[in-house]
Amino acid sequence: MDFRLIQTCPDGKARAGELITPHGSVPTPVFLPVGSQATVKTLTPGELKEIGIPIVLANTYHLYLRPGIGVIEKMGGLHKFMAWDRPILTDSGGYQIFSLAALRRVSDDGVLFRSHIDGSEHFITPELTVQLQEALGADIMMVLDECPAYDDSLEKVQMAMTRTHKWAERCQRAQKRSDQVLYAIVQGGVFPELRHQSAKYLTSLGFAGYAIGGLSIGEPKEITLAMIEETVTLLPETKPRYLMGVGAPEDIVEGVARGIDMFDSALPTRVARNGALFTWQGRYNIRNAVYSQMDGPFAPGCDCYTCRTFSAAYLHHLFSCDELLGYRLATIHNLNFIHNLMQKIRNAILDGSFSSFQDSFWASYQPTNEQTRLDQKRKWLKSRSSGQ
Amino acid sequence: MDFRLIQTCPDGKARAGELITPHGSVPTPVFLPVGSQATVKTLTPGELKEIGIPIVLANTYHLYLRPGIGVIEKMGGLHKFMAWDRPILTDSGGYQIFSLAALRRVSDDGVLFRSHIDGSEHFITPELTVQLQEALGADIMMVLDECPAYDDSLEKVQMAMTRTHKWAERCQRAQKRSDQVLYAIVQGGVFPELRHQSAKYLTSLGFAGYAIGGLSIGEPKEITLAMIEETVTLLPETKPRYLMGVGAPEDIVEGVARGIDMFDSALPTRVARNGALFTWQGRYNIRNAVYSQMDGPFAPGCDCYTCRTFSAAYLHHLFSCDELLGYRLATIHNLNFIHNLMQKIRNAILDGSFSSFQDSFWASYQPTNEQTRLDQKRKWLKSRSSGQ
For chain B, what is the total number of helices (H) and then of strands (E)? Predict the structure, then answer.
């Protein structure tokens, strides 16, 4: 058994459970910090543990290009390489190939792409991505999927979905190790009928878990939520459900409310390095002059190392001077915030009070303005695909 | 009493002692990591303590410009601001004004300069620098000095020296707090007769400690060593001697051999962020391909967190990807190396074996090529003064 469902909310879909892996168990709902290059940017494994992070994600695409999967395998696998003895999930590289790499040529066979680092040419197949993830030794592996853009036509999205399904079958057949689990990825863009087809087809193949891919890539938020709802109803109760690329606090709360168990996103760590820190009232930027002489912690009552140790004025000063310690302290704060959020959510589910938690969260939390959010997201996606 | 001389080598000038400060005692010889902007770049106070660092240096010039001394005073002083409860030494800002700032106009009264950050104009006097350092609350303060370039004429260096003497007297008179000590700075460039004059004059005024300034600023190493020797013989036995701006392992060993008790330099932390790591054989760059598949630690037998936790291959990977964690891990390694060096030096002095330690150090340590070192130093000084 690699997933145990413990409780579902009586008045909704929110669930509490547990992933069981060779590197320990993971309480769900869970958020996975992103360690693209075998490092959650700026932090040591010890700091992640001090926060309480139970699992991290690493990107096969990045590690394939640097240092190369063979190097990590020789060094004893990814856990040993990055000195992290808790569970790891690796993605297949699909999303990065479609968002970061240049000159993609997709065929039924696989994807030809150029490295965003040195322009070198590479060809990835479903079989190869499983082989790479087996060499890395992650606890949870993901199938290779084709990721259309959020504004692609139904026809294009349908073709990508069909290909994703075939690739999922090939990944399944390619799996050799029995101590790792493989999750499928539901695609289908913003088209409910495609989402239905995709969920039905993939669940008929029988995977250890199901991810919802191709969302949070620039589409309006109400569409993201609608697509989650369309998909989740067709996924089996007994398997974990993983919403890929979602990491804003409000989106996590709404994802959990719709039956999601797992989330990952670089957002909490990326915005931290820009000075944007989470509070229960919303996101505030420490660079703001209001913090320049604030003697107390950035977030009064916060139990993170940063807020326990330093004043908001000191953190503001570090950001004013572009000191690397500032990026560290902000990253610690944001991951601690998200981890506390996940714990509060889980406790609320377990004692049957999730919907009142959801209400109280929304009563105080002011999310980033929707248009600003979309503009930022699209700008970021664009800067990535142009190789910045 | 703020300095206790414990032992002098029977066959040389190396000494072991102890600085006594309101924030605890500091075994000497000691190396002070540089925390220009109230942070030893990339590290937390906890990490410095884990290494064993007993004292750090902060730059009055930097803190005066950002966040402003008034802010730090309001936040409860520099110790509280940076969450460091061990001793702190602050410099006077003199060296930075003469190396970093633009448009200097020096008069007997003080120095007019423009900020290297925003071009704003500031006027610093000896009285003001003491006032600023009292507001910061450092355990050890430095007098304002005028720092000529290493290739300035005897006449120019003499004028700067005379001014430095007058400023030292004014600093002494300006001191109000009794829980801080003030050190004088011997100047005189590369001219032995000026070094003699400066040492005699300043010691006649009676300071708590004596620094040797205006060295390690681009002059050949044999001249640095000769000037140290010329100066030290004229300094009182019972006061600490501080060689400013020196931090290469081989220079520390030679400084100690000539009777120096204190050193500071940004070199160990700065070169760490470039990937250059110390070993007992010399400095090696982790970016070198030889480390790309090295399973063991960078420096076998090293007891630092980095070498205990990660392979050389992982550290190499972090530097290849410009991951911030790499800069942290390299900084930890270098400061740990220098701290171990200081401990070995002190133990050798205490058990009377310093000259054999010095021999064994040189038998294995291959210093950076002299010409490379000078070129790097001059290039770095030039890049600083052009505001990069």
Answer: 16, 16
Contacts of A38 in chain B (CB under 8 A): 314, 317
Instruction: Please determine, for residue A298, whether its predicted confidence score (pLDDT) is greater than 90.
Output: yes
Handedness of CA A268, A273, A278, A282 (dihedral sign): negative
Residue with tokens 């400690």: B209
Specify the DSSP class assigned to residue B368: P
Assess whether pLDDT exceeds 70 at residue A239. Answer: yes
Q: What is the pLDDT of residue A387?
A: 42
Does residue B264 have an active-site annotation?
Answer: yes
Buried-state track A182-219, b at ≥16 Cβ within 10 A, e below 16 = bbbbbbbbbbeebbbbbbebbbeeebbbbbbbbbbbbb
Tell me which chain B residue has its CA closest to the CA of residue A40. Answer: B325
CB atoms inside a 10 Å sphere around CB A155: 8
Q: Which residues of A touch B (CB under 8 A)?
A: 37-39, 41-45, 62, 66-67, 71, 74-76, 81-83, 292-293, 295, 309-311, 313-314, 316-318, 320-321, 323-325, 327-328
From B230, B89, B211, B204, select the one nearest B147 (Cα to Cα).
B211
Q: Which long-range contacts (CB under 8 A, 24 or more apart) does B308-311 make?
A: B309/A44, B309/A45, B309/A83, B310/A83, B311/A75, B311/A81
B259-302 pLDDT per residue, tens:
999 999 999 999 999 999 999 999 999 999 999 999 999 999 99
Note the pLDDT of residue A77. Answer: 98
Percent of chain A exceeding pLDDT 90 equals 89
**Active-site annotation holder among B91, B139, B251, B261:** B91
Q: What is the model's pLDDT at position A386?
A: 53
3-state secondary structure chain A: CCEEEEEECCCCCCEEEEEEECCEEEEECEEEEECCCCCCCCCCHHHHHHHCCCCEEECHHHHHHCCCHHHHHHCCCHHHHCCCCCCEEECCCHHHHHHCCEEEEECCCCEEEECCCCCCEEEECHHHHHHHHHHHCCCEEECCCCCCCCCCCHHHHHHHHHHHHHHHHHHHHHCCCCCCEEEEEECCCCCHHHHHHHHHHHHHHCCCEEEECCCCCCCCHHHHHHHHHHHHCCCCCCCCEEEECCCCHHHHHHHHHCCCCEEEECHHHHHHHCCEEEECCEEEECCCHHHCCCCCCCCCCCCCHHHHHCCHHHHHHHHHCCCHHHHHHHHHHHHHHHHHHHHHHHHHHHCCCHHHHHHHHHHHCECCCHHHHHHHHHHHHHHHHCCC
> Is the CB of A37 less than 8 angstroms away from the CB of B328?
no
Q: Looking at the partner chain, which of A39, A67, A293 has a beta carbon nearest the beta carbon of B313?
A: A67
Taking alpha carbons only, the member of A110, A116, A189, A183 closest to residue A157 is A189
The number of beta carbons lying within 10 Å of the beta carbon of residue A178 is 6
A75 CB neighbours in chain B (<8 A) are 293, 295, 311, 313-314
pTM: 0.96
Q: What percent of chain B clears pLDDT 90, i.e. is strictly above it?
A: 89
